[in-house]
Amino acid sequence: MDLPYIWFLIVGFFFIGYFVLDGFDFGVGMSLPFLGKDNTDRRVLINTIGPVWDMNETWLIVAGAAMFAAFPEWYASMFSGFYLILLLILITLILRGVSFEYRHQNKGLAWTDKFDWMIVIGSAVPAFLWGVAFANLIQGVAMDADHNYIGGFFALLNPYALLGGLTTLTLFFTHGVIFVSLKTTDDMRLRAQALARRAGAVTILVAASFLGWTVLQHLDVAHAWLIMTLAVLAAVSLIAAWLFNAVGREGKAFAAMAVTIVLAVATILAALFPNVMPASNVPANGLTIESASSTPYTLNLMTWLAAIALPLILAYQAWTYWVFRKRITRSTIAASSH
Fold first, then answer.
1. Can you tell me where the transmembrane regions are (predicted)?
2. Which terminal residue of the chain, N or C, has fewer Cβ atoms less than 10 Å from its own Cβ?
């Protein structure tokens, strides 16, 4: 396989890692109004992701850096064309990070409530907008001969893209709530399982609609069978996650949700292939994997660096999750502690 195609898979791998890991972070953040009966409950929820949320976000930085180095034209076209969407994602991610650090300054409930809502907003907005962005990539956008996006901001908010946003929003919410049930005990665990049952049912309907629409849009491509297979497997895995949660097997439910997100993003990448940014107006104006890639020398050097660094990154992240594997309880969250 040629290096541009290998790096398309590597960039896809980084985005998959980001959506799986930061996805449950988003879900936990969005669950605060539903599962946080009091400040101690909200502390429990935040502490389930406290040791890992910032590490999970680094996958986005690595994905963006890999895209910039391996596919500079894709990076330039996407980040300029989707500027407002990506700016909103960046601002809300910053607000969420600041809120994690500032909410525990012991300045009263009004202080913590404001930062808690910033966490909710900083989780929900990126969760929705990432789906909007990637749905537009699949569908294609209007581009000129220089590969510049020529549509407006509201053109990106088309029905298919909005459904994509609802899909990622509900997927991440359910993923996060199941993670809460995996990391907590007693009443919080039971309430999280009940919420995951309700949210999961909605997620199945929304995600099935989006994946079905995606398959229908690509029935005429040579690898339609692959897109359809990945979409069906994603749907089966999502239903399995819902069933595992329903019988109280949160570990298997969380694993099935992670597999669902992997397969859903793989469906998106398969639908995008061999393009990286198709043009909806004039197909020749779009970017393909080969036309958007860097020089062979650059890709070769990056491949050697990735072969050395990636195993170390994966090992460190696995070790971190192992260290912080224990469940969080209300008794471990003292009234005056973070």
1. 6-32, 74-95, 115-139, 159-182, 194-216, 222-244, 253-273, 301-324
2. N
